[in-house]
Specification:
Blueprint lengths: L2 H37 L7 H21 L2 H28 L13
Amino acid sequence: MTYIQESFEKQVDRTVLRIALHIFSIELLDLSLKLVIKSSNVEFMPSTLSLSTFLMSLSFFVYGMLKDDPFIYVPNGIGTILGIVQLMLYSYYSSKSGGGSREPLLDSCA
């Protein structure tokens, strides 16, 4: 096998790994949105985390656009959109649910 073939195979392996990791990270954010909608409660979705997720996705989306790198701007563009949805859900369900928490998400083992 030549050096060029080995280099190409490594590049393909890295590309496949990048795509898999991007899909995994987007799915994690999507799961938290589904949990909030299902329970109609934002007790386990902190507002600071939602805001920081949105801001980081937005900043890396802009960076990816400036560098013209689709491996940066595509997943972060999707993350920015999901971050906006997350903030909208947070504002909707936090005003709807009121103040106190109903049930803990996890039972204490101690």
